[in-house]
Design brief:
By secondary structure, the chain is of the alpha/beta class. It is 53% helix and 7% strand. It has 19 helices and seven strands.
């Protein structure tokens, strides 16, 4: 496994002719293709790009809206009880927010991923489109990682190692099987950097870089910070920048038009004001969180990235690009309000992972040369050392994945659809469902009216009950197990009858009001 060489061996044999040496030269591609086939089958078996919690239901329902040519949608109200007479989020499922006029709802999340899903759905249909979108991004990300390592000037063995590190990363697996933007944001970030660097040799790639950068920002607005590594790649050639602008301009126009139509301003977003989301007080605790969890998610091999300044003189521009890439993403989310709350919230910084691993691979290559384990003369030492390193890192990641099972996250998302399908034979037409965590999935997969349980106050519940009674629309509640600490006794006081338990969800029927105190 020729991992410790810095240049490809020269291929022999004329084009179209077979020779053992030319075949051996292609072994990394063969290994990559076989690995991708196995990985693709594995992901397809666990794919769960369903409307579940806030993010996944928000992205999928936004895709439905965009495919219909709309950016707003109306409330599903209880007859006789308009939204204006209730707390503003009462009829608003997770993934949406009230419009500026409060008369309709608009999506909360960025439109990049919904646009991709809608485009795929026009060919495959809606049932498969979300799964296909996530699967394609996951597969493309592994290929892009391989290409980026090769672009670094490293040998194919190193490229295979880089692709493996990304493919087996717990966060990459976790968000390859559920409908979230973290993995697509990572894939488009890699595409933007790769094409921007290729533009140094052929300007036509700058157009592709503009498109990839535009998509990266559409998928996740903070990816605009990737302009730093992209600028280092493009350099000062104004023709490259012109081509880059032409590629990205249409997507910027799409973003501005959507923001204007949905939120009333070209630069507004569904997140509202961001000054409260990014604060200095989060910086120190997030750095401690990075120090605890990044060595586990990136493997201890990622520590080698800290040696990038010592190898920068060999490839100063590429080293500066990698540093800018990693610092831009890790830096901005060091101030984010929830990055430090749990290990899987490091999904926000996943677009920086390829940069960290690329830096680590450059340092590893330099160490291999210093220890005499690079070049054709290294022989079996190169093979054995590379194979041992690959097996150790693969074992490290496999142990983590085996214990924590991040690839089962998609099955957790499917539980929402299973619960909603189980409701259909039980609930009469026109039923009203109190829900919070499942509110987005109910809105996406059914026509039932939802009332957000977390928005209901003691003074509004009687009005909801009275309106349901007057309209002959029974009131139910769909709750996750974790929500039953607050529901229905505290948030929804009264007599409730449990109908069934399906997976992590319980269905309740409202029977009578709570006795007067």
């Amino acid at each position: 496994m020729q991992m410790m060489t810095s240049a490809d061996p020269a291929a022999s044999g004329s084009p179209g002719q077979f020779s053992a040496r030319s075949w051996l030269h292609r072994w990394p591609i063969v290994v990559l293709v076989i690995g991708l086939a196995v990985y693709g089958i594995f992901l397809a078996n666990f794919e769960g790009a369903y409307a579940g919690g806030s993010d996944s239901s928000g992205y999928l329902e936004c895709a439905h809206l965009l495919s219909a040519g709309r950016v707003r949608t109306g409330y599903r109200e209880i007859p006789g009880l308009p939204a204006a007479n209730l707390p503003e989020y009462t009829y608003v499922p997770l993934g949406f927010k009230p419009s500026a006029s409060k008369a309709e709802m608009v999506p909360t999340y960025p439109i990049g991923l919904p646009l991709i899903i809608a485009a795929i759905a026009s060919v495959s249909g809606w049932e498969m489109a979300p799964h296909i979108a996530l699967w394609l991004h996951a597969m493309a990300g592994v290929v892009l990682m391989f290409l980026l390592v090769r672009l670094s000037g490293l040998a194919p063995g190193w490229a295979l190692l880089g692709a493996m590190l990304l493919a087996l990363c717990p966060l990459y697996l976790m968000y390859a099987v559920q409908l979230m933007s973290d993995l697509p944001a990572t894939t488009w970030a890699m595409a933007a950097v790769l094409t921007a660097w290729l533009a140094r040799s052929r300007r036509g790639w700058a157009v592709a870089a503009g498109v990839a950068f535009g998509m990266a920002v559409l998928v996740r607005p903070t990816n605009i910070l990737l302009i730093a590594p992209v600028a280092i790649a493009l350099g000062l050639d104004w023709r490259r920048w012109l081509a880059f602008g032409l590629g990205g301009l249409p997507l910027a126009v799409v973003q501005a038009l959507f923001n204007q139509a949905a939120y009333g301003h070209p630069l507004a977003s569904g997140y509202g004001r961001v000054d409260g989301l990014f604060q200095w007080e989060n910086f120190s605790v997030t750095l401690a969180h990075y120090a605890t969890w990044l060595p586990l998610l990136l493997t201890p091999f990622g520590f080698l990235a800290l040696g990038l300044p010592w190898v920068a003189r060999r490839a100063p521009r590429w080293s500066a690009l990698l540093a800018a890439w990693a610092i831009a993403v890790l830096g901005i989310y060091a101030f984010y309000y929830c990055t430090h709350e749990t290990w899987w919230y490091l999904r926000f910084v996943m677009p920086a992972f390829p940069a960290v691993w690329l830096a680590a691979l450059l340092v590893a290559q330099s160490l291999a040369e210093r220890w005499g384990m690079a070049g054709a003369a290294a022989g079996w030492r190169s093979w054995s050392a590379g194979l041992a390193l690959g097996l150790i890192l693969a074992g490290f990641l496999w142990r983590w994945d085996y214990r924590n099972k991040p690839h089962y996250a998609g099955r957790g998302e499917r539980a929402y659809l299973v619960a909603i399908e189980a409701m259909r034979p039980v609930l009469p037409p026109g039923a009203v469902i109190a829900a919070m965590q499942a509110s987005g999935a109910i809105y996406c997969y059914s026509d039932y009216t939802i009332v957000r349980g977390d928005q209901i106050r003691p003074d509004t519940l009687p009005r909801i009950v009275d309106a349901c009674g007057a309209a002959r629309r029974p009131l139910y509640a769909l709750l996750q197990f974790e929500e039953q600490r607050d529901y229905p006794e505290h948030r929804l006081p009264g007599a409730w009858e449990k109908i069934w338990t399906v997976g992590d969800f319980t269905l309740w029927r409202y029977v009578a009001a709570a006795p007067a105190p």
